[in-house]
Fold this protein.
Amino acid sequence: MDGKSLIVILIMVSASASASAEVYKCADGKYQADPCDNQSELLDLSNVGSVVAPSRGYPESLTNETIDARQLDSAVNARDKKAEIAQYLRKQKIERDIRNLEKERKKAFKDRDDKIDQLRTTGKRANNNLAGATWQQSLAQEMTAVMQQGSTEVESIDRQISALRSELKQL
């Protein structure tokens, strides 16, 4: 065992020893570490949790008003934390949706380009006659339709991305 491990173990042992301090209840209702008199009771604190809440600057004596203030403060903090978490999750979802739409946009461009390349390749087999010219004209019209369809799809995706980005800025 090296020196660092020994120091860590000694610190842990001393911390646990101080955490198990004795508490006595006196006849006048006060509590303290040392017995007040022969009638002082040693309290069993074995069932008390080991974690003590940090002080928030509240007065030592608890009244109904201070308890209400603590409960209100706790409720406000919990509500604020829930709202903060909900906003964070919404931002994450919007960013994920934007990434997915950008992928769809790239795919729409690729699909459009693939269809046009396929039509161009098909058009190269056309004969150099009237039937071939008619077929090439038909392919050109089909290419135009593919271009318009691709543009419409990309514009729709761009509008969705724009709406999500403006919502993200508002958060």
